[in-house]
Design goal:
mainly alpha, about 55% helix, about 5% strand
Amino acid sequence: MISYLDSVRKQFEYYKSIGDKTFEQLSFEELKIQFTQDSNSISIIVKHLVGNMLSRWTNFLTEDGEKEWRQRDKEFIDNYSNKEDLFNSWNKGWSCLFNTLDAINNNDLNHIVYIRNQGHTVTEALNRQMMHYAYHIGQIVYIGKLVKGKDWKSLSISKGESKTYNQEKFAKDKGQRHFTEDL
């Protein structure tokens, strides 16, 4: 049986992979496109996610998730100099998250942690962050699709392919498994 923490890790890995697959399709210049003056580019969203990850997951069980050293407003100023810098920063944030997840166990799930002095159980904090990251990674994918247009390579079931996809799924024996195991 898969535990909650194992499931959470797989979900975070899945969302990271969607971001990774989006970056692979885009040039550095495309990652920096802002559709309007007040909108965020993929590059800016990445910078915000990384700032959030480093703040939330550093000393997760013992310090408030909103660190004094975090400069959130500066996360919305795009200053990556190349795609490698962006990707290294992205991976640094995810490494912080995954290292923290590896240190948490089931006994910690009801422990109270704080984000801006608001108490959350570890379970609530994990869910909060997962949904926050899913929200922004959805934005990243959507912007990527807009930028690439007809050249976009779908990251899920392509239009018109649902029947084939479902046939493949139903051809397998029933069993408990995480949906990401077949990706």
